[in-house]
From TrEMBL:
Compartments it resides in: Cell membrane
A Gene Ontology cellular-component term: plasma membrane
Protein's recorded name: ABC transporter permease subunit
Pfam families named among the record's database cross-references: BPD_transp_1
Record flagged with keyword Kinase: no
Domain of life: Bacteria
Native source organism of the sequence: Paenibacillus sacheonensis
Length: 277
């Protein structure tokens, strides 16, 4: 019985190890292809680069460095707006009492049932009506508004679960509501806010459709849209896949850095959410 149990456990771990290995195969191939040219890719696909073409990264950096900066900047600004407004709204819904609070909250909650793709045309008409096309406002404002629903629900849930005695003591000491929000609520829900920030930055950074619709200038464009044309020369219907893979890797570096610094708080926020659920 003990031997069969050990064999079952060994078989399970072997299958899991194989699945993990298969998961990393596309990433390894992307890295290897990024150091090759089309000749090497089409003739010896499974071999290592010979020679290693490091120039791919230098060429790609010249093409997309500005667009990476655009994506990081716009995503960060939009995420800061989402965190501030959703945490403030979450405090209002979680700690204050006013007529119609639950009705308004459930109206906000119902917005989660509306697919985002259905709002693209009305949102585009609104943005063009305000003459915001080809500006970063056309990206920041919709991203801030779009992140509010989930952010308010998340912040309201956690702020509402905090001990009410903390806020009562603050009021007795003469603290205003904004002081209670800033000095008590925000520090206590910091892991949740970092989780919300990671989710929004990743979502905004990877957005392709909306920047493609509202941004026309290459200098203001996001990196996800520019990557679609990396490795293509005008008048030549050939894609340099090595350059494109190098672009994919280089554009993913900001997200890797984000996860390396925020993973501890991200896991803490997700875990605490699971425990509360």
């Amino acid at each position: 019985m003990e031997k069969s149990s050990k064999a079952l456990k060994a078989g399970t771990w072997s299958i899991l190890g194989l699945l993990i290995l298969l998961t990393y195969v596309p990433f390894v191939l992307m890295i290897v292809i990024s150091f090759r040219n089309n000749g090497q890719i089409f003739t010896h696909f499974w071999s290592l680069p010979d020679p290693w073409i490091w120039r791919n990264y230098a060429d790609v950096y010249k093409e997309i460095s500005r667009n990476i900066f655009n994506s990081v900047t716009v995503s960060t600004i939009a995420t800061a707006g989402v965190i501030f407004l959703s945490s403030l709204s979450g405090y209002v819904f979680g700690r204050l009492r006013f007529p119609g609070k639950e009705a308004i909250y459930y109206l906000i909650l119902s917005l989660m049932m509306v697919p985002g793709i259905l709002t693209i045309i009305p949102l585009f008409i609104q943005v063009t009506g305000y003459h915001l096309e080809n500006t970063w406002y056309a990206l920041i404002l919709p991203w801030v508004a779009g992140g509010q629903v989930f952010g308010i629900i998340l912040c309201r849930t956690f702020i509402g679960s905090l001990p009410g005695e903390l806020f009562e003591c603050a009021r007795m000491d003469g603290a205003s509501e904004f002081t209670s929000y800033f000095r008590i609520a925000l520090p206590l829900i910091l892991p949740v806010l970092i989780t919300l920030a990671v989710i929004n930055i990743v979502g905004n950074y990877n957005d392709f459709i909306w920047p493609l619709l509202v941004i026309n200038s290459d200098e203001k464009q996001m990196v996800t849209v520019v990557l679609n044309s990396i490795g293509q020369k005008s008048g030549v219907n050939v894609t340099q896949y090595g350059l494109r893979m190098a672009g994919y890797i280089m554009s993913s570096l900001p997200l890797l850095i984000l996860f390396s610094f925020g993973m501890k708080y991200y896991i803490s926020g997700v875990t605490s959410g699971a425990v509360k659920g």
